[in-house]
Amino acid sequence: MLTDRTEDVPAGEVPRPTPLQLWQHDPPLPDWVRTLAGGFDADRLVDGIINRCIAVAFPTHAQDDDFREALTASTRANARTLRSVIAGEIALEDVYLEQVLSFAKVQAQLRIPQMSMQRSYRISFFTMWEAWSTHLRELIAARDIDRDEAAAAQQLLTQTILSYQDFVATQVAETYTRDYEALNRSRAHMRRSLVKEVLRGDGEGLSGSDAAILAYELGGRHIAVLLPTVAEGAAAQLAVGMRAAVSCQSVLVYPLTLSSTVVWLGRIGEWKPSALSALSKVLTEAGVPASISAPDTGIEGFRAALDQALDTENIRAAWDRPGAPSVVHHDDVGLEILLMRDPVRARQFVERELGPLALDTAEAARLRETLEASFRFGSHVAAAEHLQLHEHTVRNRLHKAEELLGHPMAERRTEMQVAARLIRLLPPSEPAD
């Protein structure tokens, strides 16, 4: 049985258990193993462990950089501390891993199933055991250790690693369970759970009490604002300004990852262009990138608004270069969303329509800019005024573009206009050698 040591434990921390005596005979590792363990490169294990854990236990968080960072810090602390225990630099009962326990809290906040959490620890410690066993075999061969002594060292090393795993996993499980249960009791968590149910399609018939907890009218007209670089707390503050700017009746803040958030804004009536402009102004003045859905109605519209915001964010992120807008509306990039669902074919289309104008050169960029302005404004004079160039310069550039294309622009005006929009979202095309 575990015996909790509660003395000298700071408030709010999980009491550290006493290590289980798993083995009847548990002598220390041989001195030659402890001495050479101090030079073991524990950090080189980390990337391999992270890749295994994410692929097997946390696939839905593969693109979450903050989650990966927290997992990496926890894994690195574990690997280094295990090395210190094997080297005899610290006793097992004195191990306290703040970063590891902090990651357990992160997993509880993200509602990661305990099964996935436990599986990640098994993968992590198996990988460590695998590396340490290989290291020990290399030492045995290099020092020509006696067979019985080598077998005993391998057994004791395995016992040490398994004892460490049990000791750490116990603390992690207690931290996770405590935080998970606390979150279950919180109103904020209950709202998050209800949002998940609605997004999954399980919330068609919210009870009166659930609707009161959600505190958001699902029957209205919704806009979803995805804030890819804003954590939940800061997003809640920003939502106050958004709500005031558009005079909406309800607002709902929901974290997508540790550092990204979606804010739904709900109105009973129509969303007018003036309200959308005011929303863009608030976000632009706040200096945060944002992707905004089109308005949609009812519970299906609530879900669709998030899907649109996510699609819009894919375009905004790809377009993220000097001169690109930081706040993007779905209706302004609907064509790009549709055509960029197949980036390979989009690239082929752009290169086929623009030819030499698709190259990543200063001249090609100038010609594309002039071409797009001419299409958009419909006259050389208006394009020249927009580009702040002389009208003759615009004419000369357009003539040069037609020479490179090999045909008048008017012949494929629509295709070239679309290609000029798509190329902003694609990786540069290198000039031929």
Molecular structure report:
With 433 residues, the chain is of the alpha+beta class. It has helices spanning 31-37, 46-56, 65-86, 98-109, 114-143, 147-184, 187-200, 208-214, 232-246, 273-286, 298-318, 334-339, 343-354, 362-377, 380-387, 391-405, 413-422, and strands at 4-5, 16-17, 221-227, 250-255, 261-267, 290-292, 296-297, 327-329. The protein has three domains: 4-184, Globin-like; 221-336, Alpha-Beta Plaits (2-Layer Sandwich), CATH 3.30.70; 342-425. The strands form two sheets. Strands 3, 4, 5, 6, 7 and 8 form a six-stranded mixed sheet that branches. Strands 1-2 form a two-stranded antiparallel sheet. Strand 4 (250-255) and strand 5 (261-267) form a beta hairpin. The longest helix has 38 residues, at 147-184. It is flat, with a radius of gyration of 30 Å. Mean pLDDT is 85; it is low at 1-12. This is Regulator of polyketide synthase expression.
